[in-house]
Amino acid sequence: MGILKTSHGEAHTPAFVPVATQGVVKTLEKDETIAAGSQLLIANTFHLHLKPGERVVAKQGGLHTFMQWPRPLMTDSAGFQVFSLGFGRDFGTGKILHSAHTATVSKNQKPKNVRIYEDGVWFSSPLDGSKLFIGPKESIKIQQQLGADIIFAFDECTSPIADYTYNKQAMERTHRWARVCLQTKKSKQALYGIVQGGKFRDLREESACFIGGLPFDGFGIGGEFGDSKKTMTQMLSWTITHLPPQKPRHLLGIGHLEDIIPIIKEGTDTFDCIVPTHYARHGYAFIHQKSSNIQPDFKKIDISKKVFLNDLKGLDPLCDCVVCKTYTRGYISHLMRAKEITALRLLTFHNLYLFNSFVSSVRSLIQKGLL
Fold first, then answer.
1. DSSP per residue over 33-75, as a string?
2. Are residues 221 and 109 in the same domain?
3. pTM, two decimal places
4. Could you tell me the maximum CA-CA distance found in the chain, to the nearest angstrom?
5. 224 shares its domain with 344
6. What are 157-181's pLDDT values in tens digits?
7. Catalytic residue set
């Protein structure tokens, strides 16, 4: 248990951080996001740089005023897009490798759609294909104009199929960029350094020691996380052991329901993930399968299936959110099948409420000494 203090209020940790990619949690307005229990959000530097641009945001008073969000905000560094628009797109992989892959990314190998250099990265804009450059200096300057409470150093997020030589090369580049980020930042924003190293223990430990030894205000744990959830928790253990215990640790891009207790046990303070909102937009609701004092058992249902049309139960009988107390599964199923956008809003609110409530219950267990 801890308290993360910012100029826009406090967040009790451990905390789930919903993703507000373009300055909004998709389908929800800010009062609904707050009502769903969200303490802080993370927005995407790369996408806000593309549109509307950091100058537009700065002219309107910064990201808090622009999106009318009164609570703490984070912005990432655009380092994830080095992977997602690069080797991630080339090989169709995410941060965790869920299926066998014969391809390997080796030292000095280049992705097709991004160009990585010593001073930064050239991207092709997903909007119009135009070229744009972001390096450590540019990332920090963009994030300073956006004005979030917590910003991240620019890094190279690596692919789960990258070999040892590539991970070492990317880690060393990330370390050089970390120093540039520290030298560039002129604002009072908290700056987090990011640990890389992939699935390799010696690299993760080396990166944690190096980044942990620099005067960052907190730390992000980034990159890929192997080919299983067991591997992921091992990697967290290797990393967090070597980070200063008095400073906060944020896990970037991980947070399925089954991940939450394991990553918190390893020492994660905050973590962000698109799961509750992404699945909602595809018609999936996370619901309690059964209740337990220590580890609730969840499942997800595709509410658009015809079987739910005549279901008079609330979306999740064990959830006390306004959606579950107000609407039947049948009604939400009808909205989803009729392609009414309200269905996406209702599912997003419920999923976000469930995730935040679950993490709140974990905080209570920690406080009681049961976890």
1. HHHTT---EEE-HHHHHHTT-HHHHHHTTSHHHHHT--S-EEE
2. yes
3. 0.95
4. 61
5. no
6. 999 889 999 999 999 999 999 999 9
7. 76, 272
